[in-house]
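Cross-posted from the bioinformatics board.
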Amino acid sequence: MFVERFKSKIVSHFSYFIGSKGDAVVVDPERNCSIYLKTAQRENMNIRYIFETHRHEDFVVGSRELAHLSGAEVYHGSWPDFTYGNVLRDNQEFRVGDVMVTAIHTPGHTPGCMSYIVADLESGYEAVLVCTGDALFVNDVGRTDFGGPDKRREWSESLFMSIVGRILPLGDHVILCPAHGSGSVCGSNIASREWSTLGIERLMNPVLRLSKEEFIEYKVNERHEYAPYFRLMEHYNIEGAPFLGAGQNCKAFSAEEFRSQMDSGAVILDVRSPSAFGGAHIPSSYNIPVDVLSFAGWFLPFDKPVLAVTNDVDDLEYVSKSLASIGYDNVVGYLGGGLSSWYSIGYPIESLRLVVFSQLKSWLDSGKEYFLLDVRSKDEYEEGHIKFAKNIYVGLLQERIKEIPKDLPIVVICGSGTRASIGASILLRNGYKRVYNFLGAMRSWKELGYPLSK
Amino acid sequence: MFVERFKSKIVSHFSYFIGSKGDAVVVDPERNCSIYLKTAQRENMNIRYIFETHRHEDFVVGSRELAHLSGAEVYHGSWPDFTYGNVLRDNQEFRVGDVMVTAIHTPGHTPGCMSYIVADLESGYEAVLVCTGDALFVNDVGRTDFGGPDKRREWSESLFMSIVGRILPLGDHVILCPAHGSGSVCGSNIASREWSTLGIERLMNPVLRLSKEEFIEYKVNERHEYAPYFRLMEHYNIEGAPFLGAGQNCKAFSAEEFRSQMDSGAVILDVRSPSAFGGAHIPSSYNIPVDVLSFAGWFLPFDKPVLAVTNDVDDLEYVSKSLASIGYDNVVGYLGGGLSSWYSIGYPIESLRLVVFSQLKSWLDSGKEYFLLDVRSKDEYEEGHIKFAKNIYVGLLQERIKEIPKDLPIVVICGSGTRASIGASILLRNGYKRVYNFLGAMRSWKELGYPLSK
Amino acid sequence: MFVERFKSKIVSHFSYFIGSKGDAVVVDPERNCSIYLKTAQRENMNIRYIFETHRHEDFVVGSRELAHLSGAEVYHGSWPDFTYGNVLRDNQEFRVGDVMVTAIHTPGHTPGCMSYIVADLESGYEAVLVCTGDALFVNDVGRTDFGGPDKRREWSESLFMSIVGRILPLGDHVILCPAHGSGSVCGSNIASREWSTLGIERLMNPVLRLSKEEFIEYKVNERHEYAPYFRLMEHYNIEGAPFLGAGQNCKAFSAEEFRSQMDSGAVILDVRSPSAFGGAHIPSSYNIPVDVLSFAGWFLPFDKPVLAVTNDVDDLEYVSKSLASIGYDNVVGYLGGGLSSWYSIGYPIESLRLVVFSQLKSWLDSGKEYFLLDVRSKDEYEEGHIKFAKNIYVGLLQERIKEIPKDLPIVVICGSGTRASIGASILLRNGYKRVYNFLGAMRSWKELGYPLSK
Amino acid sequence: MFVERFKSKIVSHFSYFIGSKGDAVVVDPERNCSIYLKTAQRENMNIRYIFETHRHEDFVVGSRELAHLSGAEVYHGSWPDFTYGNVLRDNQEFRVGDVMVTAIHTPGHTPGCMSYIVADLESGYEAVLVCTGDALFVNDVGRTDFGGPDKRREWSESLFMSIVGRILPLGDHVILCPAHGSGSVCGSNIASREWSTLGIERLMNPVLRLSKEEFIEYKVNERHEYAPYFRLMEHYNIEGAPFLGAGQNCKAFSAEEFRSQMDSGAVILDVRSPSAFGGAHIPSSYNIPVDVLSFAGWFLPFDKPVLAVTNDVDDLEYVSKSLASIGYDNVVGYLGGGLSSWYSIGYPIESLRLVVFSQLKSWLDSGKEYFLLDVRSKDEYEEGHIKFAKNIYVGLLQERIKEIPKDLPIVVICGSGTRASIGASILLRNGYKRVYNFLGAMRSWKELGYPLSK
């Protein structure tokens, strides 16, 4: 039995290729199907089945395109009403080579969630691994808020029953294969470790140490963000997204063309680091550093051309493929030659003032007036923040922009200075002038032992 | 000014990417356009124009797909009647950055052939390089037989006038950028060296040392093969081929599936070496070793699935991309696990006897009767062959199969043992039993100083 | 916590890179250390400790060179008397970032074997994975024969106690990280699946279902091969091998030079497939197909130049790196241009007759006399073989060559036709003429339901 | 005949691999020899000869190490007194396959300079290409200042005679293969185009249009910079540099370790863009953006550890290999996790104010006092600069630092903002506080049509 895990970094999504003796299954494929086809070729395997654990909300699932390319059949649960693929029965079994896959119904994250138990008949009938989708993660469990407030209690109870009644009983020895890892918005506290087992979760997953009532209470009150692009993902993953094929070509534009595209409505996405964006950037660009690219789903429009700014042409493939994996087929170009093409012909740049701990501290101590804007999530904020800082989550900043005063210097704060740079770019786009990004942010604040308000 | 040459190995085709200051042109793109888009991205350039030197006969030109992906405009000559792109005027000029391209009419290979003179205005107005398409090669000139026997003299004269009247006068210093290199069927004697200039050709190209009359006579009498797949290429290159996109997926088949595909009419293409094919192969497969893959154009059908046999999964990408570059979008699979998947379940194999010089010599000396089949081109044959050997070009063997006796052992002979393996596989497919491939073939025969008939 | 497993394919050896927050440990590094340094760089980690589970017998451990390059400290058990590194105490703990490593003494495979329990303090103190070296594999346990017959019972008991008393009690939930996978000679029946846990092994590993007495009896009577190169590995792994650095350069030789090197004593290693070797090969070469390269350790000398024959230049890097990983620093060249360079100048080739099931069956049925030589291991042979076949393990064939009659045609048999090709090449080197390789071999024989003797 | 050109980007150095029928020569190899060995392997060729055009001054030549690895022989001219290799006779000939190499003495750049004429006997005896080292470049000729002022006239005359008397007479048709391309300090005005011929140079190279007297006068008065690291290169290239082997390992350091290394004397090399350096950087680091890395040779010590700062781990291989190619074997580490590792624990950062055209213009117009420091070369400065700007070449800034006033804000100016960032980092290291980098610099100044002083 052969197992390979694939990670789609932008949304920290895991998919699985499991095969034996020339045949294989894929669980929860990402949109860029070529990775599975290449593995199939290298391993001399044929993809027979594609299993979806559930209707994904945060990325475009590649099932339909992969089925088209490989000839495999798609299977998923009975909710929602998918327009493609086959609906599974609980306990339905599939065999490829020595691999036996058993689909079990594990609702909670959504009513249609399935998990896939995998046995390796070369060794015996015991479960070897289980693909749990968004039911169970390393150190966390799935969200239960997608049905809206009315369903939340019901779905949370359902999730508890699925985990406690169907997944954990498979045994401590079973390897855990979830759909997401650390950094995903589908869980709040997924661990950075990607290797786990049901036993490890039973022993150490903090959510699983709660009683049923505590669990439900915890889940009902948990806070999650709902990024606007989810809506399109949900639509795509029910109806089937347009095929990716070879993907969108991302062209070099000269500074002149770039400016003219901007004038016609193109949106500028600067993926450079907070330091570089702080140093100099094109006015009215969004800064979404390449390692937190999924925040694009909060702001970037699907219906206008998106143009990238980067100093590293090698980033472009990652940027365009990753944005395509969350449905953006409109990354049509980039600034050829990077920012220096822009300023070398005298086009205007803007900077964002960067401040570190020692400076901020002295300002605050000096009594000068600042508006401290903490763009972390409400949970992070409540765990400890700088006194007087106001909390608006970075994803909601655009729509709550009116709450920010125009007459004060604004210091944007997050955990390390990265999300704050996104937030600061939004403020600059909205005409705010005296904006600071606090580099190091709460991490350095805590590191140096300064007082936190709760 | 930036220049990059791309080589499509299967038909030894060269294309050129030439750019300056953010803009670029591509000359004679191959079907797999992603290579130009990647270069454009790496060099921060935008492809503005795509130039075709002529209606290519031996591969699918990628102009239309590249234009679609890059937004560039396509230009070509006035013959034939292309259904896409723009027709050039003689001496029409194009400028991208410091690059000045001048299109000149250089008919002969076809009536519509264009050459593209490139100057680098950073240095001055003198020509720096010229893209000559199939007019002038390193050590050879283009074929003049595509118009049929009636036009051949006229086209040959035309070619002479184009080379002598328009290309060579550009000056000895001009770098030669032809559409083909060594191994192409578009010339008979193209040198292996890929770097040349007009001066080098003027001084050393043997065809350019002929007088006009000698040149015409030589060209009119020159022999060329016309591979059947050319017809589809000509059609595609006038009408525009289907877009390649991400290309055809090439699946692993189990031996059982492979056999069942064969039973339903799939054609087997064994791309292993002559030694490996000789050792063991699946009955009724074609052997076209991976380094002479273009012979596929003589035999492989376009309307049936093609299945590959190789021991090296890494070959598959080359095989499927290369066959796609000559129009085969039907390479749907391969034997997963290679030949051992086949014989390990007891399926029958066949071998092809391999013989080297010393053995063949002793057989011939012993007076035993053999049918010697020389599958090289008529020209090669006439330059020297083994006494009594009969010449049938490997490309024509299938249709002339009746000329081969069934009651004698047959020794297939080529230059080195590679084309002979193709020929031998055709004989085996046609029921011949006592077939030998002479490894080393004429090369070893000559190396060892044995007598040649002429 | 970050974990990456590396596989050295030639001996199916696993090493592990485990890190957290900028620091890392490596367990059982292979000789080519650059792979760990690259991972360290990509993950922004510093290698602090290198742990050896035991004195490896089948490959060169890279500890000393990796320590030199990274500044890390090496640790291992107290047996044998290593000339480098530090000796561990039982239960000694090491911490890097959130990773806690506890070394435990798990003798049996050797008296000095250590296992390394890894906890991820981000989640808690429970063990997450354990590196068991050659104590416990997926579906098998380590050999106990390296101490010689006198120690075997003692070591076997010791191994039982280590597994049952120290490893399994860590809990079903713990992920198993052994030093070898399927194909290794360090276990007889390691499963192809590379993912397992202690619980999976407790439930399904057949050796772990034996009682203590049964286990000891089983291990004492188990048969293992001891490849001659092990002796050098043991020496290197106590004393420290020469540093690999950038590795040996492997040069192209012309056929003439190749022959002259052969005349001066160079050994020829043909890594092509059994079909290709069968079709044609250079007389007196060993055939060790690239996918079973570790058999080199049975035959290849360390003190003479080794020259490779392959048709695929891309194999060379794998061949020379892999042979270096088992101590061969003498792969100095290869036949440039592959076999056709050889036969194209008329040099002699030899072939090896290949036979498949149907032919062999009809021969046997016809009563013609053949010597059937089964080169599989004694265990495989005893599980079922063709009547009258004589068993000599391929590794011992050279030294037992006198047992093979010179006056009969010899059919060499293994599982699939690969090891038989090695064996046949040894026979040919020793002057046997009528040698056949049975392609498909016992696999096809069983597939087709023919009778087996036991 | 096969030709491949290799480019070592850091010093824009070209080397050449030229081969035929299994044998090859390499001209002017760079220190990282593995690139030639890989090509030799891919092309099935054996490197027989290594030719040096001259004692290189700006990079470490790899001849001795490549000779050691390949068995090839090294040849060079008779000046200086090399401690390795063989001295050539004028017109000495070498043959490998169909390639004929003729070494000719072309002094001028140094007294021992050789050029190598290459003919392809497959086509004939005419020269096909010539490797001219530092005698003749595309659009420029070599420096003549390395012998000191006393020799300069003599060497310049010598160079003229070599070009006019020996190189150009080879014919317009000969392809030019120089040792350097655009960006090299070995020529002032080398064109960006890398393809040229002797004829193209004869027609368009501005230096070749001068009379002998004009040429000498021009060369004698030409200004060149002499970077301090040249001295070590000259030494290495006479004595032979230490072998590179697998190269220096470049380790991730935590911010704490990084700081402690700094405290022990390590030098910090920040290779990020001017924008990023401007935004935030570690105090007292040098900024040498990755695309102008060769400036390291002006400042970086050879005898202290060098630590890199970059946000892109992928840059590290380029940085350490490239610095090794100019003799820096002391790039021992980098800041793991990039700059955010530093500021996230509250360590201090510094910024460099960035200004663009419009701001600078308004400041200047306002009459406020600024010290304008133009760090371009004297030639560039004299071609046109901003009024009142003082010129100190960036390479000399450290030693002339006293000429910069401490009491004025300083605006550093170069062509585009890149070298100015190097200069500004030097000022900051020297305690200057009010330092500005003018992004876009003279390029935007000219683009917008503002007045230049000459």
